[in-house]
Structures are given as structure tokens and as C-alpha cells.
Amino acid sequence: MKDKMQIVHLLDDVALGGVTKNLELFQHPAFGRRFETVVEEAHPVWSIAPQFPDAGVIVVHVSMSWNTLPFMYSLASRNSSAQLILVHHSYSREWEQLQVPDPPRFRSMLKLAHKIFDRVICVSNEQALWLTEATGLEFPKRQVIYPWSKMNNLVNITRPHFSRHDPITIGAYGRFVREKGFDRMIEAVNKLGIQNDIKLNIGGFGPEEAELRRLAAGNANISFYGTVTDIDHYLDQCDIIAVPSRFEAYGLVATEARCAARPILVSNVGGLPEQIGEAGISVDFDDMEAIGRTLRNIRHLPLVNMSVAAREDCLRVTEQRVADWLEVFEALLGNECLEAAA
Predict the structure, then answer these.
(1) From residue 43, how far is each of 70, 71, 220, 315 by CA, in Å?
(2) What is the pLDDT, as a whole number, of residue 152?
(3) How far apart are CA 225 and CA 241, in angstroms?
(4) What is the C-alpha to C-alpha distance for residues 212 and 190, in angstroms, rounded to an integer?
(5) Are 30 and 339 in contact (CB under 8 A)?
(6) Burial class (CB in 10 A: 0-12, 13-18, 19+), 225
(7) Are 192 and 219 in contact (CB under 8 A)?
(8) Using CA of residue 227, residue 233, residue 238, residue 244, what is the dihedral sign?
(9) What is the mean pLDDT of the chain?
(10) What is the DSSP letter of 83?
């Protein structure tokens, strides 16, 4: 018999991304002293789930769909001694509104999926509220744990220097896809006309890159950083970070920006407004007049105070996420499973 209980994290794509970065949290010593963490890749579309005989908990990081339900039911059947946890990384109220042609059918699928799991982890309070309204999912089965990524170096980046005379550089980064809303940020800066006060630095890559470059063509105030392989370096080039997403279950970019002491301008969707506190403001990025006013008056915001508050909010983010997950494991497995991790 193994000395450590096995925690299996099941993904359908182990390529580098938000979910994969989030899993680095489970390398923390508080887990390692007691648990053996295993990451497994699966292909759940109309397939039979594998067996994990040593698993005490299986954490599923796969988006639910009608095509994946048979896999999930077989996962429960073939691993009946394990506790099952589902993490909803992607779905949100706005995602449903924009992407789902038949909401009642979609919600029926979610209800069937939730029956399989002992816990369902939501990545924001807004997502949890929506799922309660949509599917009847309630506490304690439904719990909220914000995502995490390794941000240790971000808290050491020098805070931005806000001068009355120097331009302010607004950063926006991520995958160049429509849902991230970079086109809206470009349009807003274009509407400012010829000025030297606001710069926009866009970082990332993706299928919409050619279109974004076309929209920004001719505006000397907009630059493209390229693929962001070094987040520390990119954020060090920016004073403020905008997150103009059309939908976002949580929005890890906003957390990374806050750790780097960058004030945030976020769209009012999903978990983004929950991250503001005193670190920024939410903006209606569908309203060009509203975002235009915000950009024109950006120096009137308490940017220094926002920068300080942003970083202070993140200083204990790792400890908070570890404690949240240990609390879930304790509830499912009992206090004795955590004695060595205390």
C-alpha cells in the first residue's frame, strides 16, 4: 500500500495554458507531504475512462458536453472508491449567452454532469451564482476556488511610475481570439485620434492577429509586443493592464497584472469585477463612448493607490489557494488525510 494518497488531475490537453499553469499549485509542499499528485491526459469524447486504482481523489479539468458525458459516467463507475471533483474552468453566463444556441438543452447536460461529481469547483462567485440559477447547483457541493498561476517573480517587478507628463502605456495580452476583445481596445484607442498621452501595447498571438494588425494600422500609439513568453518582462513595459474580454469565467490575466502592481481596466463579465477591489475599475467595452471617456480621463484615477492595492491583494494568493484546496480535500477525505500536511 502506498504511503501517500494519490490525487489524479485529468485533462484533455496538457499543452501549456491557464489550466496547466494552475496545476503547478499542487507541487506546493503542503500537498507533497501527504499526497502524490499525478497529471493524466485523457480523450473523453465517446471513450471509456481509465481506472486509477490508487486515486483517493480524481480532479477533472475537462469541459462538460453531451459527447463527454459517457466518459464521465464510466469514470465514476470504474473508479468507485475515488472522490470526484469537477472544475468549471471555462463556462460562464456570458459564454452561454454568446455561444449556446439552445440554453435549456445545455443546462440539462450540465445537470446530468453535476450528478456524477462529489464536488463542483467554480472559478468565480459570479460563475457559481449563474450555475445555481441555471442548474440548481448549491453549496456545499458547489464551492468557489479562484485559479492560480506561478506569480512569485511578479511581486518583485518595480511599480509603475505615473508622471503627469510621460505617456501611459496600457497593456492587453493573451490569445488573439474574438472573445478576448482586443479589437474593442484597438477601436477605443483609434477613436482618441492623434495624441501622445495613451499608448497601447498588445501582447500575444492567435488566429485574429492579422485582423488586429489591420485595425491598428497607421496608429503610431499602438504597438504589438509579440508572443508573451516572459510575463515579467512584458508587464514591466506596461503601466496599466486592460482585460476587454467578451466573456471570462475568471480572468487570470487580471490577477497576474495585480501581482505586478498594475492597475486593471476590466470588462464587466464573469469573475473580472470580483478582482477589482481598489486595484482598478470595470468598463463597458461595448460602449465606445464610455471607454473613450475612461481613457481620456485616466490620469484622474488614483493610479498610485490602485497600484499599491493591486499588489497587496496578491501577496498571499498562493497560501489562500492552497488552503482552499486542502479544505476541499479534508471535507471529502476526512481530517486524518491532512495530518501530515498541517
Answers:
(1) 12, 9, 46, 37
(2) 74
(3) 14
(4) 12
(5) no
(6) middle
(7) no
(8) positive
(9) 92
(10) E
Is the pLDDT at 337 greater than 60? The verdict is no
User: Is residue 73 within 8 Å of 27, Cβ to Cβ?
Assistant: no
Distances (CA, A) of 130 to 64, 88, 122, 147: 16, 12, 10, 18
C-alpha torsion sign, points 8, 14, 20, 24? positive
Burial class (CB in 10 A: 0-12, 13-18, 19+), 291: buried
Look at residue 341 in the predicted model and tell me its pLDDT.
43
Question: Is the bond into 160 cis (omega within 30 degrees of 0)?
Answer: no
What would the pLDDT profile of 202-240 be if each residue is shown by its tens digit?
A: 999 999 999 999 999 989 999 999 999 999 999 999 999
Q: Rounded to an integer, what distance in angstroms lies between the CA atom of residue 64 and that of residue 100?
A: 13
- Do residues 339 and 3 touch, judged by C-beta distance below 8 A? no
pLDDT band per the 50, 70, 90 thresholds, residue 52 = very high
What would the mean pLDDT of 234-257 be, rounded to a whole number?
96
Confidence at 31, pLDDT banded by 50, 70, 90: very high
Q: What is the pLDDT of residues 166-196, one digit of tens each?
A: 899 999 999 999 999 999 999 999 999 888 7
CA distance 214 to 199: 17
d(CA 194, CA 257): 28
To which H or E segment does residue 284 belong?
A: none
How far is 96 from 47, CA to CA, in rounded Å? 26
CB-side neighbour CA atoms (13 Å) of 193: 1
Q: Please say if the pLDDT value at position 125 is more than 50.
A: yes
Residue with cell 499526497: 35
Question: Alpha helix (H) ranges present in 181-251?
Answer: 182-191, 209-216, 231-236
Cβ-based burial of 46 (10 A; exposed 0-12, middle 13-18, buried ≥19): exposed
Query: What is the maximum span of the chain, computed from C-alpha positions, in angstroms?
Result: 70
Q: Is residue 264 within 8 Å of residue 254, measured between CB atoms?
A: yes
